[in-house]
Amino acid sequence: MGLRLGVVVNPTAGRGKAEDKGRMASRLLAARGHDVQDLTAPDLATAATSAKQSVVDGVDAIVVAGGDGMTHLGVNVVAGTTLPLGLIPMGTGNDFARLLGLPRHSVADAIGVIERALETGPRVVDAVQVSDNEHSMAEWFAGVLSAGFDAAVNAVANRLTWPRGESVYVRALFKELRRYQPYGFEVDIDGVSVWENAACLVAVGNGTFIGGGMKIAPNALIDDGLLDVVIGGPLTKGQLLRVFPRVYKGSHISHPQVSVQRGRQVTIRPRPDLGPPPPDAHTDGERVGPLPLICTCVPGALRVLAPALGQ
């Protein structure tokens, strides 16, 4: 028996090639007997509104087709509910899809995974609420929040039109390195101050990857109820240039100026007395906003149509 599926496609993902793939995904889902509700809109804000309305109208799952930005949209629609989220990766980074072990180069294979998970049940994972204070409206993220040099690189990569694919982050890195200085940070984990100093970056990982496969938090688990907080000390440009490529393998955490700590809630504040203000934070490839920010892990807040761990 078919289900009612709300499908949102980002036509700009994959450098403009996603629209045709999105239509293909809808056709394949409809051919399998599902009632496909097309929630695609000219902009992400309108698409998010349509997706949230579809939840009220009673869809059985939300499926997003695109990159990490569309994943971020989907997570903010379904996190904290029992509604599952399906992903059809077709963006530049696809970091959350990579973390879940989803097919990243085949629409048909991605839909096959969604179909199997609809039959066997979704995978339950953690999600993170982030806000600028304890009382404001929070948004959700599923992967990594980055503040510092990695966030600055992300912002540059989002503005570049070439090269295509994951190598765009390498070009963005070298562009941003020209003006790099360590930033002033204060970091609290579960109410305890763990850092008051200059640093090149602070990353809060529910998941592992940023920037199209860089293992910024290599030991983070998306179902342990904890966040991995990676802090890179005040590296010089030369040190940063040598250390940053190690992020692809996750070996940067062995550097003496890099620390990793775990906790349930993380507060990151700017400290202008210790260094220049950090750039706006990014998460799941999207801009969140300026510091201070509070990140709180919510165990089991997200249901994803993905293979169970170990499959």
How would you summarize this macromolecular structure in one to three sentences?
With 311 residues, the chain is of the alpha+beta class. It is built from eight helices and 18 strands. Helix content is 28%, strand content 32%.
Describe the overall structure:
With 311 residues, this protein is α+β, with helices and mostly antiparallel strands. The chain folds into 2 domains: 118 residues, 3-Layer(aba) Sandwich (Rossmann fold), CATH 3.40.50; 172 residues, Tumour Suppressor Smad4 (Sandwich). Helices cover 28% and strands 32% of the residues. Helix 2 packs parallel to helix 3 and helix 6 crosses helix 7. The mean pLDDT is 90.
Would you spell out the secondary-structure blueprint of this structure?
Blueprint: E1 4-9, H1 18-31, E2 35-38, H2 44-57, E3 61-66, H3 68-78, E4 85-89, H4 95-100, H5 107-120, E5 123-131, E6 139-141, E7 144-148, H6 149-159, H7 168-177, E8 183-189, E9 192-199, E10 201-205, E11 209-210, E12 214-215, E13 227-232, H8 237-243, E14 258-263, E15 265-270, E16 281-283, E17 286-289, E18 293-304
Parallel strand pairs: 1-2, 1-3, 3-4
Antiparallel strand pairs: 5-6, 5-18, 7-10, 7-16, 8-9, 8-15, 10-13, 11-12, 13-14, 15-18, 16-17
Cα Rg: 19 Å
Structural class: alpha+beta
The overall strand count is 18
CATH architecture of the largest domain: Sandwich
**What is the strand content?**
25-35%
Q: Report the end-to-end length measured between terminal Cα atoms.
A: 25 Å
What are the segments in which pLDDT stays under 50 over at least 5 consecutive residues? Answer: none
SSE string, helices as H and strands as E: EHEHEHEHHEEEHHEEEEEEHEEEEE
Oligomeric state of the chains? single chain
Provide the spatial order of strands within the biggest beta sheet.
Answer: 6-5-18-15-8-9
Tally of domains = 2
| CATH level-3 fold name of the largest domain | Tumour Suppressor Smad4
Look at the structure and give the mean pLDDT: 90
- CATH class of the largest domain, anyone? Mainly Beta
Helix amount, in percent?
25-40%
